[in-house]
DNA sequence: GTAGGGAATTGAAACGGTTCAATTATGGCA
DNA sequence: TGCCATAATTGAACCGTTTCAATTCCCTAC
């Protein structure tokens, strides 16, 4: 395989000039450039990545540690499609900027931090994208301490500055309430996710703002803290529908919870979208095959991937310090919502 | 960041010995080993990947070019989950062997070959996994010519030796026929995929063998060459059911085709699994939510990922030349098949 | 004719490991 | 004690780029 020295020799110039051509062609005179191009063509020359990054300190790679469930599952895991769309988005921007994605997995979950230390320590990548952010996320603390470029998909509750892209759950809720109001709803219930989660607070702020903006009254008996389970949807609905004046619409914490709501309605011979409008969150693939099809929020994962990669490149090249970006979820209107009777 | 020289100095030994420790600890005496370990611990030392692979010619990375659909789709694309499971399998074996996966995308489809040339030419990876094999696949020709380690998921019709992992569609069909026979079926129809595809021939061989093994008669009017479309399932079924003695069971080319079969039955007020047993191929996520749930073949993608990576490692390390591996598809029995009435 | 300055080019040093032939240490045995 | 085989260690050379200070080239202005 040809090296830069052979190219230089054939093009009758020095390796320094060839290197310049490779990295900043404008530094090279027209005639020299032509000869170098011919030599490169002749040898089908590609500069070796290892040599390049040894000296330049740039790998043109970014790191990503996939969350892989250990068991074999081809199930409806909503995260699956999400990850793939995310990857597609990241990959698109990466390719446009001549970057590759390095996927590193830990053999077991306990070793996950070791994977990040290795990615960083061995100089395998120029930056890292984090997903599945947790409260007090130690990966964030680690990378921040090392001053290594990274972007997180999701906000944590750490009191430090770092780059992230996240869903604007609050704006979503506002949008949903406005939509429900336009259908004539005023008695809107809300099954919130568990209080301990980051997204809950953001959505809750949106709920308050959305209700006041639409001049609707928040009623305590219409609020239940659930979790992401089917059961919490089922049980909350039971409680709601046994009130003297039950709500006419309910916002749930996610699609699975919304399925629980609908199961309860079915048992009570009530019809989703008619007796109670139901809105989910996530747009899992089942939601469009359910009977009735579920109105829900979709996260534009591909766009999130774009933004993650763009932010990371900005950081790597020192164009920005800690970019923050929020994206609106898409309200996908299907059959589980309808005008109030 | 510490280098191997600093480690050697602190451990009071030479860089050669430290390098030995890193790569083949058995070469280093116990006492020296201890001092080196302490020094590594002290500096939190990680050998730089670039320096390592510059001289050793091993990157500890394998390359994979994902097939990314350009449009934003969070649809039921059956390939999506497949790819993720495949990746999970590859990643697991890779991690166990201290390998990472390099994902490289082309900005547009026309440049795909360039991506492979770059992956190879820049020395970015030790080997490559190919998916979506096509007839006369130029990637295979290229990598073969360069004598670069690669494993393909799927067979092509090229008359050259290369490593692959593939589904044993023929064995699947035999299994399906044996299963149908056990339910009392003898009039079995088969909607084959298009003749031009590699898998068709393999499945067809299985069909012949399965029928003769079960002492069943192949009848020409029960054979239709379809494609992977819903429509071909629909129209073939119309033809079958208008015969004087219609079949009691039908094997289809894939799940989508099977859905077409069932739509036709519904129109004719016939019941899948009762009036006609239907077997799909692929186990797309819809197949278990269909009414009735579809009996179909699932590909064990995660296992395929294992095998791909294991084969590739064998080739990289010169343990095998062109490993071939076939895996059985899993017949998933659901509601669209039943005993003959 | 010459000074000045920008554009183009040069080549040695550096990046941080691995490799390997050569050297030294160690232990067993007569 | 001396000899030999084997284990352990050494360090210089090398991998193929980038980098940068120094040099050369070329043109313009005076």
Task: Write up what this structure looks like.
The structure is a homodimer of 341-residue chains. By secondary structure, chain A is α/β, with parallel strands linked by helices. Chain A has twelve helices and twelve strands. In chain A, strands 2-1-3-4-5-11 form a six-stranded parallel β-sheet, sandwiched between helices. In chain A, helix 6 packs parallel to helix 7 (138-145) and helix 10 crosses helix 11. At the A-B interface, helix 4, helix 5, strand 2, helix 6 and helix 12 of A face helix 4, helix 5, strand 2, helix 6 and helix 12 of B. Strand 2 of chain A pairs antiparallel with strand 2 of chain B. Chain A binds a DNA duplex (30 and 30 nucleotides) through helix 2 and helix 4.
Q: H/E series of chain A, N to C? A: HHHHEHEHEHEEHEHEHEHEEHEE
How many structural domains can be distinguished in the coordinates of chain A? 3
Secondary structure: number of strands of chain A: 12
What structural class should be given to the helix and strand makeup of chain A? alpha/beta
**First and last CA, distance of chain A:** 76 Å
| Name given to the CATH architecture of the largest domain in chain A | 3-Layer(aba) Sandwich
CATH superfamily of the largest domain in chain A: Response regulator
């Amino acid at each position: 395989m040809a090296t830069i020295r052979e190219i230089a020799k054939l093009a009758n110039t020095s390796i320094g000039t060839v290197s310049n051509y490779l990295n900043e062609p404008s530094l090279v005179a027209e005639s020299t450039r032509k000869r170098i191009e011919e030599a490169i063509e002749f040898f089908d020359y590609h500069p070796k990545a290892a040599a390049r990054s040894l000296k330049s300190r740039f790998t043109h790679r970014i790191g990503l540690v996939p969350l892989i469930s250990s068991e074999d599952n081809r199930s409806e895991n909503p995260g699956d499609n999400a990850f793939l769309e995310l990857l597609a988005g990241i990959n698109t921007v990466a390719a446009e900027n001549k970057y590759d994605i390095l996927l590193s997995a830990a053999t077991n979950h306990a070793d996950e931090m070791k994977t990040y230390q290795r990615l960083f320590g061995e100089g395998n990548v120029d930056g890292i994208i984090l997903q599945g952010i947790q409260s007090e996320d130690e990966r964030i603390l680690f990378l921040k301490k090392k001053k290594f470029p990274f972007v997180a998909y999701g906000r944590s509750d750490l009191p430090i500055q770092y780059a992230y892209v996240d869903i604007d759950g609050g704006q979503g809720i506002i949008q949903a309430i406005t939509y429900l109001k336009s259908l004539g709803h005023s008695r809107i219930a809300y099954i919130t996710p568990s209080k301990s989660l980051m997204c809950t607070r953001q959505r809750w702020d949106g709920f308050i703002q959305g209700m006041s903006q639409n001049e609707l009254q928040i009623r305590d008996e219409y609020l239940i803290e659930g979790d992401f389970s089917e059961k919490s949807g089922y049980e909350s609905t039971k409680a709601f529908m046994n009130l003297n004046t039950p709500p006419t619409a309910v916002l749930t914490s996610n699609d699975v919870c919304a399925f629980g709501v609908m199961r309860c309605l079915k048992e009570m011979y009530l019809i989703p979208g008619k007796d109670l409008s139901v809105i989910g969150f996530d747009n899992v693939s089942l939601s469009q095959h359910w009977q009735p099809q579920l109105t829900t929020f979709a996260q534009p994962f591909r766009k999130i991937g774009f933004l993650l990669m763009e932010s990371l490149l900005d950081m790597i090249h020192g164009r920005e310090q800690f970019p923050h970006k929020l994206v609106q979820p898409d309200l996908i209107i299907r059959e589980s919502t309808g005008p109030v009777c």
